[in-house]
Design brief:
By secondary structure, this protein is mainly α. The protein is built from 10 helices and 3 strands, in the order E-H-H-E-H-H-H-E-H-H-H-H-H.
């Protein structure tokens, strides 16, 4: 067996078994969604950079969230779009490894940024008089850097464990991109260490942060109910409901994929979940924060008026 093991040059991404005409149709749909994702998140980035009224901790973290969404989508969608239009399903081993690294890293960073945003909202609502002291720019910078560093460190651990594995058979990955659990299934080495670390990583990056978010929002809800002003309660609920909507969508899908026991019969459902998450989660953040956030809408209107007068 050892004599038959070798490092391979490429993987075959099975994806979805479709006719060429259907692949071209999906290419058009997915390409438009990807462009809309870039434009929507780019608009958020532009508004936060150009409007001084959005230079606050909440929008500083929203800025990082938009960068993460663009990066996550760009880590695997271009290759998928290329495969659809060229009707090919191969990806080089190096490209597959880099794709795995970036999607794991950006997914982890987004999770941690969402937790930091919930802490920011907790501080703003539960400790309003101390907010500017607690969430000063130094603290915000440290939290952002720590989120990025932790996300990439966890991804590097997973990829390092993956690179130690040998491959010796047909390299058909039953996915539309190099999702780590799908790639591990085509190795001929022992993957129990990888599975343990992947599960531990999932618990650390999902269960722990989600618990912190829920605790924060229980405290926030209790504080909001104490607000005497009806307008104050409405404003607090509006800001927090936007964040909760994003958190629920993000954590719900990822936990269904990584914390549910692996089952070969559920592979097609998991591919659909990943497809939905890859395309619609990056779009959800700018849509939620622009449609439900009065300050973002006001900044957008001011920008339009400024450009109109010019």
């Amino acid at each position: 067996m050892e004599n038959n093991q070798s490092w391979i040059a490429e993987f075959i991404l099975v994806g979805f078994q479709l006719r060429e005409e259907m692949e071209l149709l999906l290419f058009v749909i997915f390409f438009l969604l990807y462009i809309f994702n870039l434009l929507a998140n780019g608009m958020i980035l532009g508004l936060i950079c150009l409007d001084p009224r959005l230079h606050s901790p909440m929008y500083y973290f929203l800025f990082h969230l938009a960068i993460t969404d663009i990066s996550y989508a760009s880590s695997n969608l271009p290759n998928m779009l290329e495969n659809l239009v060229k009707h090919k399903k191969t990806i080089p081993f190096v490209s597959c490894t880099l794709q795995m690294l970036f999607y794991l890293a950006f997914g982890s960073v987004e999770c941690l940024i969402l937790v930091v945003m919930s802490y920011d909202r907790y501080t703003a609502i539960c400790h309003p008089l101390q907010y500017t002291v607690i969430m000063n720019w130094r603290v915000c910078t440290v939290l952002a850097i720590a989120s990025w560093a932790c996300g990439f460190f966890l991804a590097l651990v997973q990829v390092s464990l993956f690179l130690r594995l040998p491959f010796c058979g047909p390299q058909k990955v039953n996915h539309f991109f190099c999702e780590i659990r799908s790639v591990l299934k085509v190795t001929c080495g022992e993957t129990w260490i990888n599975e343990i670390f992947l599960f531990a990583d999932s618990v650390f990056i999902l269960v722990g942060p989600l618990s912190l978010v829920l605790v924060s929002y229980v405290r926030i809800l209790w504080s909001v109910l104490k607000i005497q002003s009806k307008e104050g309660r409405k404003k607090a609920f509006s800001t927090c409901s936007s964040h909760l909507c994003v958190v629920g969508f993000y954590f719900g899908i990822v936990m269904m994929v990584y914390l549910v026991p692996d089952n070969n019969q559920q592979e097609e459902q998991q591919k659909i979940l990943f497809l939905f998450y890859t395309f619609f989660n990056p779009l959800l953040n700018p849509l939620v924060y622009s449609l439900r956030n009065a300050q973002v809408k006001s900044a957008f209107h001011r920008m339009l008026q400024k450009n109109w007068t010019l």
